[in-house]
Amino acid sequence: MKYNPDLHKRQSIRLRGYDYSQSGFYFITICCYQRKCLFGNIIDSQVELNNLGELVKEEWVKSAIILYLGKMINYILIILLNGN
């Protein structure tokens, strides 16, 4: 379904006036397009990351202070500390 501004009333959940570049804890969720399982599979009730999933995990850990990185197959959950 294409985005229809009359039907899909998207609103920002950001705090108005808040400076997100300041130090603090941030919760980030990034979903794959159409919720496709791009990062791995569920095997015996366990998440098994594929090569792309491992690469994404490694790059996030290298580029930020990660407090939590959820292992998911079609989205990424991250809690990071921005310590400018």
Structure explained in plain terms:
- The strands form 2 sheets. The chain has a 3-stranded antiparallel sheet, with helices on one face.
- The protein is flat, with a radius of gyration of 16 Å.
- It has one helix at 51-63; strands at 24-31, 40-43, 46-49, 65-70, 75-82.
- The termini are far apart.
- The chain has 1 helix and 5 strands, in the order βββαββ.
- Helices cover 15% and strands 36% of the residues.
- A hairpin with a 4-residue loop joins strand 4 and strand 5 (75-82).
- The chain is an alpha+beta fold and 84 residues long.
Relevant terms:
84 residues, alpha+beta, three-stranded antiparallel sheet, 5 strands, 15% helix, 36% strand
Instruction: For the largest sheet, list the strands in their spatial order.
Output: 1-5-4
How far is the N terminus from the C terminus? 40 Å
Instruction: Kindly state the number of beta strands.
Output: 5
Shape: flat
Taking pLDDT < 50 over at least 5 consecutive residues as the criterion, the unreliable ranges are none
How confident overall, as mean pLDDT?
Answer: 84
Structural class: alpha+beta
Total helical elements? 1
Brief write-up:
With 84 residues, the protein is α+β, with helices and mostly antiparallel strands.
Describe how the helices and strands are arranged:
Elements: E1 24-31, E2 40-43, E3 46-49, H1 51-63, E4 65-70, E5 75-82
